[in-house]
Amino acid sequence: MSENTAPEPELTEAEVSEQKAVRLAKRDRLNELGLEAYPVALPITDTIPAVRARFGDLEADATTGVTVGLAGRIVHLRNTGKLCFASLQSGDGSRIQAMVSLAEVGEENLELWKDLVDLGDHLYVSGEVISSRRGELSVMVKEWKMAAKAVLPLPNMHNELNEETRVRSRYLDLIVREQARKNVFARAKTMASLRNTFTQLDFIEVETPMLQVMHGGASARPFVTHSNAFDMELFLRIAPELYLKRALVGGIERVFEINRNFRNEGADSTHSPEFAMLEAYEAYGDYNSIADLTQKLIQDAALAVAGSHVVTWADGTEFDLGGEWDRISMYHSLSEAAGVEITPATSVADLQALANKEGVEVHLANHGKLVEELWEHFVKDGLTRPTFVMDFPVETSPLVKEHRSIPGVVEKWDLYVRGFELATGYSELNDPVIQRERFVQQAALSAKGDVEAMRLDEDFLKALEHAMPPAGGMGMGMDRLLMAITGLGIRETILFPLVK
């Protein structure tokens, strides 16, 4: 829409209701005439994208002698005397013009067209592929059929949909807005790329339970439900981690899953209560090798979607996902930014004093939580390139192996891109004795009111006691990966987001 073009007024509720009544009457008339408003099948021979690919370079006023039968949604309609025009749109946004003339279809069919066909209808047309005098690729219609009658009108195609409409009525968004369609295809290409990269590296895809008797694998508040069949409390999973590690115990040494997680927490520009998550585990790897894997997965996805490691976001900004990404120490980078040395031995009192000075509030503060909150306050917003933030406090990472050379630290990283956490990776804790101790510590936090703390999972500990090989593991939100590649907000990257 031009900057100088004022938006056209949308229909009022009364006008929509009136149009619906008129369109329902047309539906009834189509059925009465035996023309079927919603036929089961149609003699389609071609698609709009295929016809455009074959004849897109046709010169103005040219003919082909080729007859096609295709269907699409009417997004533009102009009825003028003996010649009518409609623009048919396919699901990917490709369009072709349908020309309906008195000479080709006869007076009766032309009048039926004018009386019964509306914007938004799905229509089948059959005829010769031609180019109009203005050079527009067209079908000179010999026959037309209603494919599906729209009883509600489309939004004005010349106006931008507001965000509320885009999110609540995504089907309308997909019809009228090219970016919405691009988002769907970008997500599909990303998923295919991830699976292709994993296949090349001999990873196996599995599925683990959505309903769990014990929530774990992450620090998050779960959704709680009840099974009538088993008369027991169940949880929608917050992470698949503990089941994927059971697969490692069982001998599936390179395993991944892409599926839904559910966390009963706040919703904002980077968080959704329901989201798609990738987790992967590599036996005999560690947090360094899994960082290498994560970088490759993301860079391969960028290539699949954008054709380059330099992606262009929706606002036109270019962002470089290429090259080797920075790896920085959490404690070292925090110390530099805060101007005071902070180590795993720094006391809670000193950390709390710094937090108070900076106005950083920390709920149920311990050393680890204070360090992480202070790091976000001092360092996070200054990151411009994709960056792995390495070596976290042990208190906040109950499933991670202790650092091989730095006491009080675990071998964990968080990957930051575009100012938000995109992925996290570990050298996985596989000592069942230490894991039990960590679970007991988490249970103590839960007793103090920490709703995100994990529970003691005896079944998982039993699996660990059968020996899980050393491993690197990672988790990455698919919605956030799309945000990193496209520059969009989370509600744009989810096809049908949960809204209040």
Strand and helix map with partners:
Blueprint: H1 13-32, H2 48-55, E1 63-80, E2 83-89, E3 95-101, H3 102-116, E4 122-131, E5 137-148, H4 163-168, H5 170-176, H6 178-200, E6 204-205, E7 211-212, E8 223-227, E9 232-236, H7 241-249, E10 254-262, E11 274-283, H8 287-306, E12 310-312, E13 318-320, E14 326-329, H9 330-338, H10 348-358, H11 367-378, E15 387-393, E16 409-417, E17 420-427, H12 432-447, H13 458-464, E18 471-477, H14 478-486, H15 490-493
Parallel strand pairs: 3-5, 6-10, 14-15
Antiparallel strand pairs: 1-2, 1-4, 2-3, 4-5, 7-9, 8-9, 10-11, 11-18, 12-13, 15-16, 16-17, 17-18
Subunit structure: Homodimer.
Domain Aminoacyl-transfer RNA synthetases class-II family profile: 192-497
EC number: 6.1.1.6
Explain this structure to me?
This protein has helices spanning 13-32, 48-55, 102-116, 163-168, 170-176, 178-200, 241-249, 287-306, 330-338, 348-358, 367-378, 432-447, 458-464, 478-486, 490-493; strands at residues 63-80, 83-89, 95-101, 122-131, 137-148, 204-205, 211-212, 223-227, 232-236, 254-262, 274-283, 310-312, 318-320, 326-329, 387-393, 409-417, 420-427, 471-477. It has 500 residues and is of the alpha+beta class. It has an 8-stranded mixed beta sheet with strand order 6-10-11-18-17-16-15-14, with helices on both faces. A hairpin with a 4-residue loop joins strand 8 and strand 9.
